[in-house]
Structures are given as structure tokens and as C-alpha cells.
Amino acid sequence: MAEGSDMEQLLTAFRKFSVYGDPKATGKELNGKTWAKLCKDCRINDGKNITSTDVDIVFSKVKQRTARVITYEEFQRALEELAPKRFKGQSKEEALQSLHKLVEGREPSSVGVTKVAKTATVDRLTDPSRYTGSHKERFDDSGRGKGREGREEIVENTGYVTAYKNAGTYDSKVKAEK
Predict the structure, then answer these.
(1) Residue 120, CB half-sphere, CA atoms under 13 Å: how many?
(2) Phi, psi for 139 (deg, rounded to 5)
């Protein structure tokens, strides 16, 4: 069996993968999706000896019949099932040690995540100082959005026609005549 520190690293990797992508996860159990991700990211799933189908079959074998997740103990049994298949030339113990080394200290990778493109074209298209027409009205001089004022025509119920220059001067004119 592995040493105490190795088992702690294995538990740490298990917890990191179990909370990956699920804000409600407790870190005590893996679902099928995160189990498959763990096998892929840790290179247990090599495509020759172990395929994604093998990973799914082992997950189904070790979990309880009605459960949708596996615990840490079931996770260790799953690794014991996969080890001899992944490392065919080694004994069962050596294969398990090799498999533990693949998983220990690993975390979920975010390969393939869309990155923000920083090109001249994107800069030109997102520069609000170059906007024209109705889009120009939605941003102030600094480029910050005006919010509702920029999106909607807000009606002022003052009694004057829109764009009337002498709005609000009626009272002063009437008082001046008396």
C-alpha cells in the first residue's frame, strides 16, 4: 500500500476533482462526469489499454446500485480495478502504485476553455468612442454604459414638447406681465 503522505495527496486530488464544476459539491463524492474527467486529466484513460467505456464500466461496478456517485473508498476500489489493466506488465501492487502516482497531487485542468481574444479587430469593434448612430447614445465619453437612459426613450411629463428650448419659463413670463 501507499504511504500516509501519498494517500493524503490522493485524497486531495479526489476532493479537488469532486468539487470541480459543481458549486454545491461537498468534496466527499465523485459523480460519473468528474470521475471520467479525473481519468482523462490524470492520463489513466490512455485510449489503448483503458478507454472511456472501461472507465464508465468500472464506475458502475464500484458504486452502489441506486447511487449516482462514488465515495473515496469506492474511488480507491475503482483504481484497484483499473491498475492491472492500465499497467499490464507489472504486478497488481506495482500497478496500483503507478496508478496512484498518476493521480497524486493532480487538479482538474481547464484545457479548451475559451480565452479572451486581444486583437486589433476586437479592440476596434469594442471601442465605444467609434460607435455611431443609436449605439453612440448608449455610452458616455469614458466608455461606460448609460444603463436605462441609453437604451430607452425616457419621457418627461413636464407638459412641454421634446427639445423645446424655453421649457420652464412660463411662470416667469406670466409673473413679469402682471
Answers:
(1) 0
(2) -130, 145
10-residue mean pLDDT series, the chain (178 residues): 73 91 87 92 90 94 93 94 92 92 87 71 78 77 75 73 77 75
Distances, alpha carbon 133 to alpha carbons 82, 136, 141, 150, in Å: 63, 6, 15, 12
- Grid cell, residue 143, equals 466608455
For residue 134, give the C-alpha cell: 443609436
3-state secondary structure of 169: coil
Give residues with Cβ within 8 angstroms of 159, minimum separation 6. Answer: none
What pTM, to 2 d.p., does this model score?
Answer: 0.61
Distances (CA, A) of 163 to 42, 79, 134, 138, 155: 67, 75, 18, 19, 12
Q: For the purposes of burial, counting CB atoms within 10 Å of the CB of 163, is it exposed (0-12), middle (13-18) or buried (19 or more)?
A: exposed
For residue 79, the Cα-to-chain-centroid distance in whole angstroms is 27
